[in-house]
Amino acid sequence: MKRYCLALDLVDDPQLIDEYEYWHKNGWPEIRESIIDSGIKEMEIYRTGNRLFMIVEAENDFSFERKSKLDATNNKVQEWESLMWKFQRPLPWAKDGEKWMMMMRIFQL
To answer: Which domains does the chain show, CATH number per domain?
Structure first.
């Protein structure tokens, strides 16, 4: 099992943040299915202020490149991603079009 940690910012607007949380509490079943089908076994998203932190646990053969290819051919995922851009703001060091940024582990007990 592999673990990945990623970060992303939200638009710093309390109403949009509430709406973003609503969508994640009432997510579309097709999105959940696409996550599982890509090899992800567990996913959690945490928030502090407008900063998001995601923990992903996936099968050993999981890759974000493969997931991106699957997502690109899934109309429902594309619809979801378009909706999410309303709420999300790339981190300052992200390249054009990048959303969730991989975090580097700097400590382990």
So the answer is: 2-102 (3.30.70.1090)
